[in-house]
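Complex record, two chains
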Amino acid sequence: MPSILPLGDPAPSDGLLPAQALDRAADRAFGLYVHIPFCAVRCGYCDFNTYTATELGGGASQDAYATTAVSEVDFAAIVLRNSGLPDRPLSTVFFGGGTPTLLPAEDLARILTAAVGHWGLEPGAEVTTEANPDSVTPASLQVLADAGFTRVSFGMQSAVPHVLKVLDRTHTPSRVPQVVQWARDAGLAVSLDLIYGTPGESLEDWRFSLETALSYQPDHISAYALIVEDGTKLAAQIRRGEVPGIDDDDHADKYELADQLIGAAGLSWYEVSNWSRTPEQACRHNLAYWRGDDWWGIGPGAHSHVGGVRWWNVKHPTAYAGRLAQGLSPAAGRETLDAETRDVERVMLEARLVSGLATSTLGDHGRHAVAGLIADGLVEPPAAFHGKLVLTLKGRLLADAVVRRILPD
Amino acid sequence: MSPMARTAPVPAATDPAIIRNFCIIAHIDHGKSTLADRMLQYTGVVKSRDMKAQYLDRMDIERERGITIKSQAVRMPWELDGTSYALNMIDTPGHVDFTYEVSRSLAACEGAVLLVDAAQGIEAQTLANLYLAMENNLTIIPVLNKIDLPAAQPEKYAAELASLIGGDPDDVLRVSGKTGMGVEVLLDKIVRDLPAPVGDPNAPARAMIFDSVYDTYRGVVTYVRVVDGMLHPRERIQMMSTRATHELLEIGVSSPEPTPSKGLGVGEVGYLITGVKDVRLSKVGDTVTNLAKPATQSLPGYADAKPMVFSGLYPLDGTDYPVLRDALEKLMLNDAALVYEPETSAALGFGFRVGFLGLLHLEITRERLEREYNLDLISTAPNVEYEVTLEDKKVVHVTNPSEYPSGKIAEVREPMVAATILAPNEFVGAIMELCQSRRGVIGGMDYLSEDRVEIRYRLPLAEIVFDFFDILKSKTRGYGSLDWKADGEQVADLVKVDIMLQGEQVDAFSAITHREKAYAYGVMMTGKLRELIPRQQFEVPIQAAIGSRIIARESIRAIRKDVLAKCYGGDISRKRKLLEKQKEGKKRMKMVGRVEVPQEAFIAALTTDESKDKAKK
């Protein structure tokens, strides 16, 4: 979650949703995101909404957090029902952070159980938690599996010590294969998160990280280019010249290498930054974001989306807990998208997926852009001839530019 | 020392014997306006409490830059040995671009105060104006100003002035406009030393226009010096160059606010109002006469203002074009030297090709347009006017590189200037090097004093309009000064260099240069553009060419990555807003073929390196 919240309209204190949100709701999957705003150490590149203090007051402490989060789950169930939305079982649940596994596994289980109590789980539902290799044990992973978690995503980031150091990651690389094995033993599917383009990382460093990650045979890999966000420690270090800056060509080289090596290991891309061993092992929660499904985001700073209504919670855990304690919506602001804006978002999001963007849904401007996109090698010609815009490798690296070319000026 | 005059001589009834007409010749910053202010105060025409700093410089830009663009005339009473005199101070423009206007102001005077900063010595433009004054047979009163400054070197510069105009260094007055020291002595000396004007009161009226200013409320205010006869209110007058006639609605003197009078007689200086709205109908240098009893011979020295430097002015936002058009129309009312015509650029859209007297005139005009009319403008690199003779003997005048004929060319002539540079002698080598690199031919060199030199060069105007003065300043650590005047033309080996982006010619970057410099221009411009144009989704070759021959090339590598990797935990709003911002940015791009060129790239590419450095400071 970014440190800057978007500007929107004020959110109503009862959290009730406008009628627009109900439209065709039964056709959309429903998911839950749970934000855990705690970390043992704040990483230098991170601008997410997370705190290292173990004792934030007012129901915001780590000890009390599960209880506070459950109170928003309860609030969500009431709001959705009172807004007239149909009861839908959870299709996906995703615990992110921060470091969710910094909380006792029992706390995560308790939040999940509360959600399942309200909505139930779809058969074959995907329930993921992010985890830091430092903060899991065989026992804690087993507790999660027993509670209904199906998947764990480890923040491996790199296999190279000097890269991990620049990222302020505290785990030792050798711990990763161990935690992967423990997760497998507990019956959990495994994803590994990698970051490329860290200052000081060579192409060979990155190759080593990729090969190491692939040697653990994960079901899923996410590879994100490092983004230097304003206000982070890393941004300051670059500004002061203490570490080298970010180079887009270096990022492009590393993305191409990632696609090559991950592909050779038998995984395929399904979204610009995500690869899975089989289509079924794609992260469905992630796909829900790109497909415009509904989800409720629990936790300070968390974002939600229901039927074209987007809202986001207050950022600070203490303020967040305070709102819920008073029975008020923790939302800080929201926006209700009109048809045109929803269409812009749809193009922006679906263009990133291997399932592609249907040309039949585009306006004149977008359809006229297709020939140029084929000529410039940005979309796959056969798919385009069958009515889908699917990005080529070059196109994935220029996805934002492709979107700008498709959308009217 | 004289007291303030008890009675002031009445306009239209003043004996020429008690009139003194003078101007102050000084360099920018040498304190002319401060001294003038002090005179206004000591003669009592401006009460001390009404004193605004630099009373005569009315325009904001003038006050901020500390220079006088438009001159005015003020009538001040001064008493000496029991007689009240009428002193007319004619405030001359202080810059190289306005030499003609200066010459007309000088022609309206019998004497000049040569004002020089006691810490800096004389500068090239002052020297040039001093020559003009001496050619007009003006009596010169040399004065060192700012003698209260710790850095003042009055002995050194008094000797310099004495050697220039003849006379004894001890006769050089020493004043401080700031403290007022010596100003009364100067006023006395003006009365004593300057000759009274001479004219025939019974001859047909002849008055010379030395300035013409547009006033929103009163129309054109014309400043004149009467040479012969007399002008009265309500008479019909005639402009001798154009034969245009007007009714004299009002006549008067400035002291310093306009004060109507019963007329103006021999030797008097004042203003005329006829109700005309365009300064072109009241041209500087022209002779005003009485229609009923016209003079047969106009006063000598009249010339049309001739633009020397041309630049395309384009609104940054194309929808501002009508605003720019109206603004130029208004500025023209007050600036007879300004000429313009509409122009279209493939790269920059609709704009105007505007002719100026020189680079400062360009800068001031551009600044006024931006400030007074709230416009953001791109100005293309300044050009001079070339005369191109084709092989079929057809002659084309080119002020814009994109109009350069593509056919067979027999001969190209370019305007030349006679330049005078003053600097401490330690910089002579650097100056000669600079002038030679600009195709200059040395005309002579003289020592003004032990360590200050005057160097004369004949140079192509095109070589000094772009960055010459900035470089001269930096090579002489700020001590060098420059003056120039038109000096005919010469045949030169000139070529047009085109700049192409992905094979598309960009007219705004074309330049006419000497053949030997074409390569350097090509390398400089292609290199600059490579830095300034963002990477595109395809490789963009940048080429410089003379005709079909490529003389320099660069290329902008294709961008390889333009994608935001993550979705920020479902914060789609943020991603969408980023997209909207990117799309907004795209709107500000100019398309050259398929290449998106930011406006900033045009501005930066057309800006000289020196002025960029200045902006950084």
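Note: The mean pLDDT of chain A is 92.
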